[in-house]
Amino acid sequence: MLRPGLIWLSKQEWAERSARAAGVERLLVRRFVAGDTRHDALGVAQQVSRSSDGVAGANAKFSFLGEAVTDPAEADQAVAEYCALAAAIGDGTDLNARVGVKPTLLGLGISYQTAERGLLAIVETAAEHGVRVELDMETSDTVDATLALYRSATGKSELTGVALQSYLRRTPNDAQALIDDGIARVRLVKGAYSEPSRVAYGDTHAIRRAYTDLLELLWNAGADVGVATHDPVLHRAARRLAADRPGDGYWEFQMLYGVRPELGAAMRARGERLRLSIPYGERWYPYLMRRIAERPANALFALRAVVGR
After folding, report:
1. pTM of the predicted protein model
2. Catalytic annotation present for 187
3. Strand partners of residue 99
4. Catalytic annotation on 71?
5. Residue of 38, 187, 208, 283 with catalytic role
6. Tens digit of pLDDT for each residue in 128-137?
7. If we measure between CA atoms, which residue out of 137, 237, 136, 221 comes closest to residue 176?
């Protein structure tokens, strides 16, 4: 019951006002969000990319926070920000970095054409600077449009990718279609939205089994895969797969900035490839609430931060 309730709260303006009034932004947000500006995010990425005591640093994926945009001007602002971010990565840093984009931030809720126009502008700019653009996957009712946007983007550049969610029952068919089309560049996640049981698996065991099956499907196809989860059970499954069946594709672990940093540190110490998803921007509230919903320990951390304990 906790997870659906927190996801519901993530959409409530009154709850966001209360969180800001309680000082959550000052006390908690900076654990999970790099800052308000791309300069803040680039600084965090530079910090985590540094090697230390012989341990390799982590690569980065940047996300400009925001979603469910209904104002065309706001969608245009997001496109301009992502174009500036791609240029900053390509021209002014030595980072191995990507950008992740939410379709609804580009105006998918306004129209498919609005989101496609914005995405292609970002992809074109990013390709000029050698930066990969990955589409995030949001609620189940946007999956078809997101996959169509991804196919459109691949026509502009191979420096593209898309997230797939293991908890959606439809995902094996979606993954196979990407494999058949030769564009299986996938960030594999569990899924972080509240969905009905007819659409998504609800229990941990079923989601893990679906994730493992998808990982094996993509692995056997020689796909480019980001193992994007904080679940140690799935980390072990990925390692076993890599050890038993060395594949032709590329794979890496991917985690969220500020979430279970001890796991990331252990991966880096073992010499495993790790990419951290680094969010930034002023629209932190929905993102933060989903991070809290994903793991009870995050909720406890949030409560302690607010009450000052």
Report:
1. 0.86
2. yes
3. 62, 133
4. no
5. 187
6. 999 999 999 9
7. 221
